[in-house]
Specification:
InterPro entries: AI-2E-like. One of its GO terms (biological process) is transmembrane transport. Pfam families: AI-2E_transport. Keywords: Cell membrane, Membrane, Transmembrane, Transmembrane helix, Transport. With 395 residues, the protein is mostly helical. It is 87% helix and 0% strand. Among the domains are: 123 residues, no CATH class; 152 residues, no CATH class. It is built from 15 helices and no strands. The radius of gyration is 28 Å and the shape is globular.
Length: 395
């Protein structure tokens, strides 16, 4: 195509209205994305063996990746002191084993004692809840709603009985699933240290090996994308674990101050669940509020005040200081990701939804920047921005 033919083509209505139109390009890209997803649903059976394999190795890989981002700074710190990489890793492993032994010796007996006491006292707790519920239902200001409340309680009781019968019928399936889960966790615990060791020792070689398989022109942008993803994941994992530890300590102290039973156990559970952004704190409230009801209305008020204080401290001080704006994800987006990924992929979706989204966001951003450079559809916007910057410099 010579110059005149190319000029004629760029001046044509087809080029102006379709090929050089941002809205049309956006619609076309959206259509292609949904078409790809639709085709994937039609041939998903072809990927069943791959998905099964990924499901088997997912747990040890996730555990190893989390520990990798937590341990890597300590390994680097020791290595800077003149110790070899491998020796640094073994030193850190020895420190972790010592901490685990101390934690098992210190906390496991206490948690076991509290859980045993909770199970033994469960019938009396249920009776206490029934007494408090009856007092609440018999209050004068609910007299006009007795029929509705009785109907609601009847429905709840019926559903509870149905769930109990269903559970008893499927007890064997539950037991087999539980045994299978225990087996997977055991295999993951055994495999994770070995995977973690090679992650810590050979992560740089893995990246170099991957880049060598790519065309030369693609190595620099791919390296930049991998670096950004690594930075995002490191910030997320380290920040969430740090916040979870701080929250667990705060809850344990606060629960002990107000005199809540099983304070340490509830504090540890709250800290662990806090690794699920936003939803974790509300999930942790459920057993604590139930225990507050058992111990009386005054304790329930203390528990609710404790949660308000903790959420204020976490939201105003802990999370901004630890996490900052490392992920640059709006809270509404986070809630949407958690709800969507949780409904689609269950527990895995809740825990991995945000880091996966952050990684995809980095890739999409890089692709969009590349598209802006080669398409020429955003040149006018770039020129306007450059003109504004020059005007500011002159002023």
């Amino acid at each position: 195509m010579n110059y005149h033919q190319e000029k004629k083509f760029t001046d044509s209505w087809f080029f102006k209205w379709f090929l050089n139109n941002q809205a049309v390009v956006a619609v076309l890209i959206t259509f292609l994305v949904f078409l790809t997803l639709y085709l994937f649903t039609k041939i998903s059976f072809l990927f069943t063996p791959i998905i099964s394999f990924i499901a088997i190795i997912m747990l040890p890989l996730v555990i190893s990746a989390i520990l990798y981002y937590l341990i890597k700074p300590l390994v680097g710190f020791i290595e800077k002191r003149g110790v070899s990489r491998t020796t640094s890793i073994f030193i850190v492993f020895a420190i972790i084993i010592a901490l685990l032994i101390w934690a098992v010796a210190s906390f496991i007996p206490m948690i076991q004692e509290q859980l045993t006491s909770f199970v033994e006292n469960l019938p009396s707790y249920v009776r206490s809840i029934n007494v408090e519920a009856n007092k609440f239902l018999d209050s004068p200001w609910l007299a006009n709603y007795q029929e509705e409340l009785e109907e609601m309680l009847s429905n709840v009781s019926t559903k509870a009985i149905d769930y109990a019968e269903s559970f008893s019928k499927n007890a064997i399936d539950w037991a087999s699933n539980f045994a299978s889960a225990i087996a997977r966790v055991t295999v993951a615990i055994i495999m994770s240290p070995f995977i973690l060791f090679y992650f810590l020792r050979d992560s740089g070689k893995m990246k170099e090996g991957l880049l060598k398989t790519l065309p030369t022109r693609m190595r620099r942008p791919i390296s930049r994308v991998l670096g950004d993803i690594n930075k995002q994941l490191a910030g997320y994992v380290q920040g969430q674990v740090t916040v979870a530890i701080v929250v667990g300590i705060m809850f344990t102290i606060f629960f002990n101050i107000i005199g809540l039973r099983y304070a340490a156990t509830f504090g540890i559970i709250a800290g662990f669940l806090n690794m699920i952004p936003y939803l974790g704190s509300f999930l942790a409230m459920v057993p604590v509020v139930i225990m507050g009801i058992v111990q009386g209305p005054i304790m329930l008020i203390k528990v609710l005040i404790t949660f308000v204080i903790e959420q204020t401290i976490e939201g105003r001080f802990v999370s901004p200081l630890v996490l900052g704006s490392k992920l640059s994800i709006h809270p509404i987006t986070i809630m949407f990701i958690l709800l969507t990924s949780g409904s689609m992929f269950g527990v895995w979706g809740v825990f991995l939804g945000i880091p996966v989204y952050a990684s995809i966001k980095v890739v999409v951003k890089e692709i969009f920047e590349w598209y802006k450079r080669i398409s020429g559809l955003y040149e006018e916007e770039v020129l306007v921005i450059e003109g504004e910057e020059k005007a500011k410099d002159v002023e």
